[in-house]
Write a structure and sequence with these properties.
The chain is of the alpha+beta class. The chain has a single domain (12-146, 158-207), classed as Jelly Rolls (Sandwich). Helices cover 26% and strands 28% of the residues. It is built from 5 helices and 10 strands. The structure holds fe (ii) ion. Fe (ii) ion (FE2) binds next to loops. Fe (ii) ion (FE2) is lined by residues 111, 113, 179, 194.
């Protein structure tokens, strides 16, 4: 038998350590502001169980090189998949930085970002002791007919894929791919940038 793999789910992962230092520095004030907004929560419940989300980074020049890099890579990602990118313009819908609570409990339940074509993460603070992303099987038919797996090794049977995060790791994935973040234990800091990109028909982009 010859193997054919149709309807695959591409995920690009790359190490880009050169952005870690400058983006951590540029992110500090955003995380501080996000934590300040939650002062009442922290006082009442402790620095636990949540994630502190920044405002949008899309207009901050400190993130300009990174935005350009990620924007181009996301366009490449769609082009490489076979989409006719001569007809579309890619645009950031959102880009923000977040840091999980210091005492642990930070997490995100499984979600997709509606009406987006490319999503991504860039990890600024992470280790083997922190949270990390988990991707879910996106094919609804396959998901509904899964069977018990032989073992936890990665295979065509898996429903979930765990990707251990490390600083400098860039992940680009299709906007339809459901993802979550496992509960953080508060042992070490966990900070990452998250973004979503839409491909807009060029005619519409011109009219807007
Ligand atoms: Fe997300």
């Amino acid at each position: 038998m010859q193997l054919y793999e149709f309807f695959k789910t591409p995920i690009w992962i790359e190490d880009k350590p050169e952005f870690i230092k400058s983006l951590n520095k540029a992110s500090d004030k955003y995380i501080k502001a996000a934590r300040d907004k939650e002062k009442k929560y922290i006082k009442k419940y402790g620095d636990f169980g949540t994630s502190y989300h920044s405002s949008q980074l899309t207009l901050d020049n400190d993130f300009y090189d990174f935005r350009n890099y990620v924007g181009q890579k996301s366009w490449d990602f769609l082009d490489w998949q076979g989409f006719d990118m001569s007809q579309y313009q890619t645009m950031f819908s959102e880009m923000w930085v977040q840091e999980f609570a210091k005492k642990g409990g930070g997490h995100h339940s499984a979600h997709v970002h509606w009406n987006q074509h490319v999503s991504g993460f860039y990890f600024l603070k992470a280790s083997s002791k922190t949270s990390y992303p988990v991707f879910h099987e996106p094919r609804t038919g396959a998901r509904a007919t899964k069977l018990k797996v032989k073992n936890m090794e990665l295979s065509n049977a898996n429903e979930l894929v765990h990707v251990k995060a490390r600083p400098g790791m860039l992940i680009i994935f299709p906007g339809y791919l459901e993802h979550e973040f496992v509960v953080d234990h508060g042992k070490e800091p966990f900070r990452f940038i998250h973004w979503n990109i839409q491909a807009v028909p060029k005619m519409m982009a011109k009219d807007a």
